[in-house]
């Protein structure tokens, strides 16, 4: 970054690098390079908050190792060359339709990485690509992250996108499990300046309890931190549920089904019984239940550390069961539901899982996708439906998926692979064609996904800041890719992106009975007009007779794109509103389903594991403030310091095992040699490696110089959370010996 000088300009946009949706104030020079990044102090949601990742946006935007032109790999020599966009799409149009014609639709697969949730192109145009492929072989980072939360929400509320979030700004008591928002900035809980919100909770006299195998930065901020054995969160929560019933502490304020079934399911999980499994004393479990029941308002929040376990879905279910039993569901200060401004998917039928199963292991489908844990075997196992062609969009599953080394080897067996990605990395090196998206500054931004989980209702649109200079936008890349996999060419003098958008706009307006109002949509292009339509039809929208009115939208007659263009710092739509359950429920009963049969059935598996003898050492992952999965390790300001790939181990365990400098870590799936970092901040019997490292074959200069090790060489893709198919990254049994 350089100093600001005369002739430079200031621009505003939302940070796209994590779930916090912070507002940024960018300074660009006269050649459109980002030379300074500050937090946008006028943003009503983030109020100037900025983390190290956001501060490094300029470095990421123009990383010298990023790909700027399409790349084609010669399989005979494994050499890469640049190509024109037309040549790249022509090769895709030649190869994928031919493979599908020879082997069937099941021979093609699509993998979507985490950044898709942070882009307009990912939200609006990737579904078009999925429809063009017309395959059930859809995979994403969701089953390496949050699928248990969405399956539990879907079964309880009828919609997997109806996910309660803690009302951080008003709650009196917060119980947090497996979450470290001071490092992650929050997850499935969109809250810029999460640290500031937690500090405000304590300043106003609230209480925060953190349950985690590590004394994280978040745990250090809490009133109380409780160590817990990895993977045992469901037992702890069941102990709380048991106590609520046993001591008559119930205060159910919403319409529910299945109360008696939950009572019966909790019968065997007494605090005394689960204490032995969790390491949390029985009297502490009883006290937590009493505190949650007695607090004026309270919320239980659990995230990735609890999702990525063998009983992830049961854990997420029990979180919301406790919120409901204590009277804190859909209530100010409790667990509430956001009201996102843009019209999302309108579900008309209750959510279901396992509508179909995977070919090899018969793992369940959830939200239209298969578990990433089964992709390797779907590529390597012969037979009808074997995956032979793969498209990846903004993902690096060779590092982020369980049994990463096995998947890496499987990718080499594909007959054809395409990657939409800015880097030549551990996954894309197997591709035949790489299609790079433009710079971040050349793309518009609206958070369709993340604002559905915001702790305060808010909206902000950021137009592209820098012209495309003749190259296709990310949305156009994906739209043209959708045509290519269908064996089609763009119509002469017809933009494929406009073609897609016009079909969507016409179909949506026809369904809404508003086709005659097409001409009212505003925007410089069809993408913006589509966003305008979604805002007008959304809960605050100009075209909704029952719209929620706010002072900022009132002069416009309701929400539309012009509201956001006229308010570039973002629009505050107010605190979360209580009493939304009747509106958002999509269950068959019209009530909250406290005891979905699929989850009650899985309790049998949980109960059977109560008597298991705990392994001597369990491996868990960890989040790092200056890291985001695998794709930000090539930014020099973000690598180093505490952002290193070391094995955290309790000093007592290190001494007992004779570990000083490096250790050999073995699991049922693999083996690694790693640097050892003894620390009192991890409980005895637990070791921790960060997620997303292992850049040993990387073409990225900074990442390869700080390669680290791939923790997923130790995780096992044969073990998943049963209801959701989510990968198990936490609670992995390991052994350690000196290197």
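^ structure tokens above, recovered residues below v
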């Amino acid at each position: 970054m350089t100093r600001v000088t005369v002739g430079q300009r200031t621009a505003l946009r939302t940070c796209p690098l994590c779930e916090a949706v912070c507002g940024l104030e960018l300074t660009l020079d006269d050649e459109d390079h980002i030379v300074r990044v500050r937090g946008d102090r006028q943003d009503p949601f983030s109020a100037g908050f900025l983390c190290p990742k956001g501060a490094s946006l300029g470095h990421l935007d123009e990383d010298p190792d990023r790909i700027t032109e399409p790349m084609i790999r010669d399989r005979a020599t494994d050499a890469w060359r640049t190509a024109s966009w037309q040549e790249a799409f022509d090769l895709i149009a030649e190869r994928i339709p031919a493979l599908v014609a020879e082997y069937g639709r099941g021979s093609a697969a699509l993998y979507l990485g985490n950044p898709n949730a942070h882009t307009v192109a990912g939200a609006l145009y990737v579904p078009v690509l999925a429809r063009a492929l017309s395959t059930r072989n859809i995979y994403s980072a969701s089953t390496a992250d949050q699928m248990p939360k969405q399956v539990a929400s879907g079964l309880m509320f009828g919609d997997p996108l109806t996910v309660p979030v803690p009302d951080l700004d008003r709650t009196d008591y917060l119980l947090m499990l497996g979450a470290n928002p001071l490092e992650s900035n929050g997850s499935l809980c969109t809250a810029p300046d999460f640290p500031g919100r937690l500090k405000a909770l304590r300043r106003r006299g609230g209480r925060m309890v953190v349950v985690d195998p590590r004394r994280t930065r978040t745990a250090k901020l809490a009133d109380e931190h409780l160590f817990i054995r990895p993977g045992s969160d469901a037992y702890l929560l069941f102990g709380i549920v048991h106590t609520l019933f046993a001591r008559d502490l119930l205060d159910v304020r919403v319409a529910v089904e299945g109360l008696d079934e939950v009572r019966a399911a909790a019968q065997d999980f007494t605090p005394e019984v689960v204490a032995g499994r969790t390491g949390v004393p029985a009297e502490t479990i009883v006290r937590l239940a009493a505190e949650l029941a007695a607090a004026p308002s309270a919320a239980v929040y659990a995230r990735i550390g609890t999702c990525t376990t063998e009983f992830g879905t049961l854990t997420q279910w029990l979180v919301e069961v406790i919120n409901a039993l204590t009277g804190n569901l859909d209530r100010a200060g409790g667990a509430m539901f956001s009201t996102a401004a843009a019209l999302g998917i309108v579900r008309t039928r209750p959510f279901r899982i396992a509508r179909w199963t995977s070919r090899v292991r018969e793992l369940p489908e959830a939200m239209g996708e298969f578990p990433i844990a089964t992709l390797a075997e779907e590529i390597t196992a012969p037979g009808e439906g074997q995956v032979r062609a793969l498209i990846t969009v903004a993902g690096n599953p060779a590092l982020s998926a369980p049994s990463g080394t096995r998947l890496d080897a499987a990718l080499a067996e594909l007959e054809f692979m395409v990657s939409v990605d800015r880097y030549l990395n551990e996954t894309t090196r197997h591709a035949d064609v790489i299609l790079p998206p433009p710079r971040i500054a050349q793309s518009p931004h609206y958070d369709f996904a993340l604002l559905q989980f915001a702790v305060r209702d808010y909206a902000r649109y950021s137009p592209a800041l820098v012209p495309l200079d003749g190259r296709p936008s990310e949305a156009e890349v994906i739209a043209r890719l959708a045509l290519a996999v269908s064996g089609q060419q763009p119509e002469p003098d017809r933009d494929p992106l406009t073609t897609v958008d016009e079909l969507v706009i016409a179909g949506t307006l026809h369904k809404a009975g508003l086709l005659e109002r097409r001409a009212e949509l505003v925007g410089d292009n069809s993408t913006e007009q589509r966003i305008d339509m979604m805002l007008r039809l959304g809960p605050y929208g100009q075209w909704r007779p029952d719209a929620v009115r706010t002072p900022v939208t009132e002069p416009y007659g309701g929400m539309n794109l012009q509201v956001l263009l006229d308010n570039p710092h973002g629009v505050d739509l107010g605190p979360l509103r209580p009493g939304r359950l009747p509106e958002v429920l999509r269950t068959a009963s019209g009530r909250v389903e406290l005891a979905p049969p699929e989850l009650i059935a899985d309790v049998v598996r949980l109960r059977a594991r109560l008597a298991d003898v705990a392994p001597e050492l369990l491996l868990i992952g960890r989040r790092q403030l200056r890291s985001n999965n695998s794709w930000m390790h090539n930014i020099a300001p973000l690598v180093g310091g505490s952002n290193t790939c070391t094995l955290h181990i309790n000093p007592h365990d290190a001494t007992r095992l004779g570990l000083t400098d490096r250790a050999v870590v073995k699991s049922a799936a693999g083996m690694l040699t790693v640097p050892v970092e003894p620390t009192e901040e991890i409980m005895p019997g637990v070791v921790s490696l960060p997620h997303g490292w292992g850049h040993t074959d990387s073409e990225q200069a900074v990442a390869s110089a700080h390669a680290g090790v791939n923790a997923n060489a130790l995780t096992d893709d044969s073990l998943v959370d049963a209801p959701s198919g989510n990968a198990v990254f936490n609670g992995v049994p390991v052994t350690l010996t000196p290197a």
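The two ends are 41 Å apart (CA to CA).
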